[in-house]
Amino acid sequence: MEMEYKDPSKRGRWIVLTGVILAVVAGGAAFFLINNAQQQAGQSGLKTTTGVVAAVAIPARKPIEATDVVVRTDIPLDGTNAEGVVTDPAQLVGRVLAVDVKVGQLVTTNLLASTTAGAQFSILKPDETVAPDSEAWRAVSLTVPDDRAVGGLLGPGMLVDVFMTASVNVPQSILDQGTYYTDQSTKISWQDMEILSRQGTFYIVKATLPVAEEISHLQAAGNAQFSMVLRPDADTRILDVSALGATTNRIIQRYGLPVPETYPKGSGSIASQPPIPSITPAPSPAPSASAGPSPSGSATP
Predict the structure, then answer these.
(1) Which of 6-20, 24-38, 159-173 has the highest mean pLDDT?
(2) Across the strands, what pairs with 297?
(3) Which of 55, 116, 190, 227 sits CB 3.0–4.6 Å from 162 for a disulfide?
(4) 241 CB contacts (<8 Å, ≥6 apart)?
């Protein structure tokens, strides 16, 4: 019985040829899919742009440094970031942001607080404009020691209420009536003020023109001191403070502080010491005795 002989080399060639065909088909399919995706992306209007993004987290009110930003060339462009894109980092260096910016976030011009490079703050917010009927905002400085400024922990962007403590001088004719006396008086004067900048104990706050005038006068007069208390960010209420105000006697009455009394108690006026007697002059020295006869009866040698 004869056996059929099969050449194994022919079978191997078929296997190789089949693999090549499959590879070509797979490559063509991949090319088709990629090309189709690109065409669909182009048809959907997806565009990219070049812009400056934050290389590190940049806090508000901090001047931008050259190392804070980088340029990206593949930023997806849409309706949310089409305006205010900056392509040159040099246009942002030295400018101040009105809000915190996260790493990778696009830095656009509408996020800037300062209108010029080198400015440490801006009086108006990005969404505020000047109009004939708009509020006349000004920046004015206050001197507040750390112990009256939440331990010196206040900074730009925080909202505070400002207390004023002034000396109240009562005329002598009213003092004689026994009701009022000269002392310090404290009251909350301005609410919901934004700190724009700080340098040591100097605080620059945003104020209306009339308030800025009042603060400037009190600072120049030197008979008033200021204190600041921090407000929660969410609390923007302007409260009625007409019934508030603190003096020493009001605090004594409100909290029932005991009034100091003289101890030990006296029954009348305090006895005074007798007057110091006048000094008696010292007596004059007695005159010395002169030589004379011996007393009678004395023996003579």
Answers:
(1) 159-173
(2) none
(3) 190
(4) 187, 188, 191
| Cα distance between residue 179 and residue 100, in whole Å | 54
Burial profile 5-29: b = 16 or more Cβ within 10 angstroms, e = fewer:
eeeeeeeeeeeeeeeeeeeeeeeee
The answer to the question of residue 116 being in a domain is yes
Q: Kindly list the distances between the CA atom of residue 104 and the CA atoms of 76, 157, 213, 265, in Å, as whole numbers in the listed order.
A: 13, 23, 43, 76
> Do 187 and 210 belong together in one domain?
yes
Coil vs helix vs strand at 143: strand
The range of the structural domain enclosing residue 184 comes to 137-255
Give yes or no for a contact between 100 and 59, defined as CB atoms under 8 angstroms apart.
yes
Per-residue pLDDT averaged across 171-179, rounded?
A: 90
Q: What pTM does this model have?
A: 0.57
The C-alpha atoms of residue 144 and residue 205 are separated, in whole angstroms, by 12
Within the chain, residue ranges assigned H as helices are 8-43, 172-175, 209-221, 248-255
Question: Considering the domain boundaries, does residue 301 fall inside one?
Answer: no
